[in-house]
Every structure is written in structure tokens, then in C-alpha cells.
Amino acid sequence: MKARNSKNAQGIDISHHNGNVNWAKVKADGISFAFLKASEGQTYKDDTFADHVINAREAGILVGAYHFVRAVSEDEAKAEAANFNDAIQAAGGIDGLDLPPVMDYENNPSRLSKERISAVAAAFLSEIERLTGVRPIVYTGNFFAANFGAPIGKYPLWIARYSTVAPSNTTAWSRWDFWQYSDGQSGGLRSNGGRRVDGVSGFPDLNEYDGTLEEMKKRFTQTKETVDKMAERDIDKVSAWAEEAWAEATANGYFDGTRPGAPITREETAAVINRIRTNFLRLIAGNVADIKALERRLSEIEKEDK
């Protein structure tokens, strides 16, 4: 994965362990975003979360919420997502946050297999996205990240590696969106050469976004609005820009003509690809030099299979 960049936005993450925070001083010290602990497991909620949300945003800091996962099954993961959502709602709802909700999944005391870890993660992530309407972020450690399968890679990554060495590529990810580069005592340094942050006692975790503050705002702050607009689309109507291509693909038998605006599944994609592949091989088998003849032959093949 890539190294840090001096132009990147800087942030911290905070929980009740950090005590009182003077967010105005935090902002003045060059911090532009903060992830705040909201909940853990199926019942615990951080009692400092709501106040931190209000005070950090008043200081002009972008805020997000995270949940520490303890689930060992899909059902437990969904219950934990509900607890997370309850904590978010109690603090003003998802619209009161600037950054997506975060699943913090970083250890495996029950010794689950990689497949089970991915299944638990997928259940939590899909459920919190359903509840909030916002695609969540995955937080995990540099070594633990290797437990997640490729499908989890569709979610943005916030990775912990307390080092100046960039995080490692994994099956799920080859880039980071946020890098927790220090726990305040070890790892990388801030641009001022230290690890302290004004307004926070002790040693706050230090984070960096892969981009500028404006780029982060553009990417994340309209996430829910975008999801809502997408949900309003009539999947039975084809978009004007795709009418010709949709008509041709339907006429040639690659789609059945229904639900042009619906998301395509991997199964449907496989069916279309296999059909194209079969037709292409049949076309080549009867190959002739004349392009028009090739086009006529392909049309004949497609009509034969309809």
C-alpha cells in the first residue's frame, strides 16, 4: 500500500478512555476529523459519545462513529449492528455525523476461521448499512486484515499500523482510505515531529486520510443523500443514455428485457459472459474474411439461441 503524504488530512480517534477533550484546541492544532467510539458488543454504549459529537462538530471537526465488534456469529453481528445504530440515533442520528459508520474488527479471541471472520464482518456491515443508509468503513489491524476475504474489500479501509512502513496489501485491499499510523507513543510522527495533540490529555491515536480535507468532504459528507437518491430510482425504466444499448442487448438475447435499472448480480453477470463467450467461439469456428459476413453470422447465432 502507499506511503503517507504531507498534504493528507489529519485526524484522531477518541473514546471514554481519553477523558475530557478541548475540541477547539484540537482543531487549532491541525486536526480536521475524528472517529468517536459509540458502542461495543450487543449492549455497551460509550457515555461520552454524544457529547463528543456535539462538541467536535461545533469546533469544525468532521466526525464519524465506530463500534468494537465481539460477535462470533452472523446473528450476534446483526445484534451488535443494532446496538451501534441505537447509539448513533441517541446522538442525533446518522445525519449528525460527517463520516460513515465504522466496524472495528481487530481480534479473534474465539479463534474463528478466516471464513467465519469474513461472514461475521459481512453480516455486521450489511446490517449497519441497511439501518443507516450509509456504506460503512472497516477498521482493522495490519496483520488482522489478512483474515478478510475479497468481498469485504468493497468497503473503505481504515487500517492500523504503528510504523513509518506502509500497511501491507491483502486479499481484500491494496490501498488504505485511513491509516492509523500511531497510538500516540509509537509509530509515525505528525508533521511537527511529535505525537501529542493539544486539547487531549495522554496519547490519542493518530490518523491520516488518503487525500486532502476537501477531498474527504467531497467523498463522504453526501453519502447518505446519494444512497437515498439511488434508492428512489425506478428499476423498471431504462435510462435515456442506455436505451439503444439496452434494446440491442435485449434483442440479441443477452437480457430478458426486464428490470433495466436493477443492480446486476454476479450470477447474472456470469450468465451473460458465458453466453457472449459461447457465441464468440461459435462465430470464430465459422470465421470468414468478410466483416459483413461475420456480423450476419453472429446475428444468426444469437437468433438461434433466443
TrEMBL record:
Q: Which Pfam families does this one have?
A: Glyco_hydro_25
Q: What class of enzyme is it?
A: hydrolase
Q: Which reaction does it catalyse?
A: Hydrolysis of (1->4)-beta-linkages between N-acetylmuramic acid and N-acetyl-D-glucosamine residues in a peptidoglycan and between N-acetyl-D-glucosamine residues in chitodextrins
Q: What is its EC number?
A: 3.2.1.17
- Where would you find the membrane-spanning parts of this chain? none
Q: Does the keyword Thylakoid apply?
A: no
Recite the UniProt keywords alphabetically.
Glycosidase, Hydrolase
A GO molecular function held by the record: lysozyme activity
Gene Ontology biological process: carbohydrate catabolic process; cell wall macromolecule catabolic process; peptidoglycan catabolic process
Name the domain of life. Bacteria
Q: Does the keyword Mitochondrion apply?
A: no
* Family membership noted in the UniProt record: Belongs to the glycosyl hydrolase 25 family.
Q: What is this protein called?
A: Lysozyme
Organism field: Paenibacillus rhizophilus
Q: What lineage is on file?
A: Bacteria, Bacillati, Bacillota, Bacilli, Bacillales
